[in-house]
Amino acid sequence: MSRAWTHDAIARIEADFRRSADTHLIRLDLPAFPGIPLYLKDESVHPTGSLKHRLARSLFLYGLCNGWIREDRPVIEASSGSTAVSEAYFARLLGLRFIAVMPESTSREKMARIAFYGGECHTVPGPGVASEARRLAAALGGHFMDQFTYAERATDWRGNNNIAESLYHQLGAEPDPCPRWLVVSAGTGGTAATIGRYIRYAACRNECTRLCVVDPEHSVFFDAFRTGRRDLRIDAASRIEGIGRPIVEPSFVPEVIDRMIRVPDAASLAALRTIERLLGRRCGGSTGTNFVGALRLMTELRERGERGPVVTLICDGGERYLDTCYNPDWIAAHGLDLAPWQALFERVLLGAPWSPPVALDEAGDALAACHSPLSSEARCSTLIR
């Protein structure tokens, strides 16, 4: 292995990082929520357009420093979405071949984004994307990045400009610099793990903050948090791209989460229409899921007469989802009715109480002891509101 090449590769990534400004933190003061500002950390402004830019940078640095990523060896990832786009960007920066293993059903638009940065798309007919990526890496003598295993450990959760440290630095000059809730969704679970650990690590400043993770319909993360089981599995794939998983991934760390909310997909997509009205721009589906959780918690604070910021993420822009989240035919084909949820959000933003068409599944607070696999179903019963 060429130590000189590794040092040069790390220097290139660090130089690229210094050329990039931090992402914006947008403040929304909604009249119906006096004293409860909503902050949106806009991760869509990264060079590759999503939150996954941070993860890809961390995974490359982690692989380089572990000696796994080497000169003239290809990098392989199991991803059809934003992670593959961002990893293709960094592979091109280092002059490395990059192959994204993905289902045959992946849209042409996403493949084109990966190809734009010089990446290759390797499709498989069934669900065994990760196993095929692992096989391909072995056959080519390359490195399987394996985002779902390494997302929670590749990022330095104690700081070094991770997303949590960036958030608190930007909030430092605000009237109330300590958010009551940080709301994120989980794909690998790595972002939630980083933020949850940082909240505890910097507890002397952030003792007022709790972490809420929102989960879409077709995902096992909520039930894993509620029951403490890591062996859960479902056959359905999440309709909210980038978040929700059919298995409990290694990077999902429930012990650092204070609360989880399961958000219906119709609510996530309806929220995108509300966000577009508030911001004048479109966002991706996971941002809609985040917004539903944030709005739920803001109404709860308001009902209790409490004040303080709520913070969530804009994960990526809506231009990647014109054929799904913003396509009426796709929405109808999945049997999703957005109208009742859109009406709810508009009422809540005018000061009405939280009265959703379908109650959200919620778990946390009193269920803090449920993270042990030995916890009983009785102790971990779901909270419905």
What does this structure look like?
The structure is a single chain. The protein has 2 domains: 9-49 and 156-384, Rossmann fold, CATH 3.40.50.1100; 51-152, Rossmann fold. Helix 6 (147-154) runs parallel beside helix 8 (190-201). The chain has helices spanning 3-18, 52-65, 82-94, 108-116, 129-140, 147-154, 163-171, 190-201, 203-206, 221-227, 265-279, 285-303, 328-333, 339-348, and strands at 24-28, 38-42, 75-78, 98-103, 120-124, 143-144, 181-185, 210-215, 259-262, 310-314, 361-364, 383-384. It is built from 14 helices and 12 strands. It has an 8-stranded mixed β-sheet with strand order 1-2-10-7-8-9-11-12, with helices on both faces. The protein has a 4-stranded parallel β-sheet with strand order 5-4-3-6, with helices on both faces. It is globular, with a radius of gyration of 20 Å. Helix 4 links the parallel strand 4 and strand 5 (120-124). Helices cover 40% and strands 14% of the residues. The model is unreliable at 366-385 (pLDDT under 50). With 385 residues, it is of the alpha/beta class.
Structural features:
385 residues; alpha/beta; Rossmann fold; 8-stranded mixed beta sheet; 14 helices; 40% helix; disordered C terminus
Low-confidence stretches: 366-385
CATH architecture of the largest domain: 3-Layer(aba) Sandwich
Structural class: alpha/beta
Tally of DSSP β-strands: 12
Q: What does the average pLDDT come to?
A: 91
Q: Give me the strand/helix succession.
A: HEEHEHEHEHEHHEHHEHEHHEHHEE
CATH topology call of the largest domain: Rossmann fold
What share of the residues does DSSP label as strand, in percent? 5-15%
Shape, principal axes of CA atoms: globular
| Contiguous helical run count | 14
| Fraction of residues in helix | 40-55%
Question: Main beta sheet, described?
Answer: 8 strands, mixed
Within the largest sheet, what's the order of strands? 1-2-10-7-8-9-11-12
